Description:
The structure holds 2 protein chains of 2 kinds.
Chain A: H1 12-17, E1 21-25, E2 28-33, H2 38-47, E3 49-53, E4 58-63, H3 67-72, E5 87-93, E6 99-106, E7 113-117, H4 122-132, E8 138-141, E9 145-151, H5 155-160, E10 174-179, E11 183-188, E12 197-203, H6 207-215, E13 220-222, H7 225-234, H8 261-266, H9 272-280, E14 286-292, E15 303-305, E16 311-321, E17 326-333, E18 343-348, E19 351-357
Parallel strand pairs in A: 3-13
Antiparallel strand pairs in A: 1-2, 3-9, 4-7, 4-8, 5-6, 6-7, 9-12, 10-11, 11-12, 14-17, 14-19, 15-16, 15-18, 16-17, 18-19
Helix pairs in contact in A: 2-7
Chain B: E1 2-3, E2 8-13, E3 16-21, H1 23-29, E4 32-36, E5 43-44, E6 49-55, E7 59-63, E8 68-73, H2 76-79, H3 83-86, E9 95-99, H4 102-106, H5 111-119
Amino acid sequence: MSEPELKRTPLHAAHLAAGARMAGFAGYDMPIQYPDGVMKEHAWTRTSAGLFDVSHMGQARILGADATSAFEGVTPGDFAALKPGRQKYSVLLNDTGGILDDLMAARPDDQGLFIVVNGACKDADFRFLDAQLSGDARLVRIEDHALLALQGPEAAAVLAAHVPAASGMAFMDSAALTGFGGVDLIVSRSGYTGEDGFEISLPAAEAPRVWAALLADERVRPIGLGARDSLRLEAGLPLYGHDVDPSVSPIEAGLAFALSPSRRRRGDFPGAARILAEVSGAPTRARIALKVLEGAPAREGAVIVDADGAEVGVVTSGGFSPSLGVPIAIGFAPPALCAPGQRLGVVVRGRTWPVETTDLPFVPHRYVRRP
Amino acid sequence: MRFTKDHEWVALEGDIATVGITAYAAEQLGDVVYVETPEPGRALKAGEGMAVVESVKAASDVYAPLSGEVVEANGDLTGAPETVNAEPEAGGWFARVRIADRAEYDALMDRAAYDAFLETL
């Protein structure tokens, strides 16, 4: 059996020209790191502005008079209350309250919802939505657009030079704007790093010029998926397929905020029986955050043990934190063990290393919220 | 200095071989954040895992280029794993091994052969 050929984003040639190390991710040939390397790219994003090509992610519109009510049929969010110009994090739920994918859904304009889903899940998500959306709601895939993320403390100042209206946006705002000399954009003030920043959807044909225009600013450097992963782990943001999968509920995953109060009262979302029971009782497992006090990085699959060496949980994402200078990890464990300040252990290659439970995020978020 | 196709280097003095990973390997790994070196006294067989080197993203095995007994591990790498990137073929050494069979060393690639091998990658 031969490997299916990897797809390319509209910026593939730009990544090669920049000397990126490429690898397959979500079916695309993606930049893992540029010549700077993961540590420098990570630090650059935390101190200046990092530019990410995330065009592998799935973009679509949900259109029709029933768009928001139909979307509520597969999510636990109150999308009827989502105001124009705002965006909301949510999850697609299966019948047992497990998470099929996590996503952003926005109302940048008056054309229904604009959604962005994970690249690895997008084909399955879109088939699911095609089958599940009721009434006159319909899914329209956006195949001819790229998606860029500009993240970091200098992101707003950099983008203002090209898209002046973006300056007035706050965290989780979404807007249809024009910039970079007349290009139609959908801009949201959000991201996957914990920093202030923007995600920008734009026509694929314009992507190389816009990418180059942003990189022409000396405050901006290109950042690969390696640093994207270490940045999101420090920010405590889950990675679908690792920290979250169809067996995991939003409550177990520490994503209770995705459950809108009005939907919780109505209990009218898939898997409500399980999810509401977990809200009022206690789930059997919860999100745990660990700082490794000494020893090797604990990566996905590493067993978490108590002081007696008994297995109590598992790491779902782990690695080295460039900002903190120590290994960090998130995983699942019984809720009683997840409170911060407890000593546990992680087993790496047969050796148990001491860890301490901590709060999330590991590194404080620096979102720019509306005053 | 001799080299393996797994990108380890060996420098031999008497019957003591100093072992590390090559500049090429260090560059491929990226920023090294953790190194697990073998315990002194451990008997190594050529080709078996003798150490683990970890970057931000992943853990990689380092294989014993030849058989012998570990006589010293580079303890400096515990506190300064970045030495593997800064000086892969000097201060970033992993372990010293008392070799059992000089013929194993002679069979490894010399610098010219290793450079030619890198050209094929």
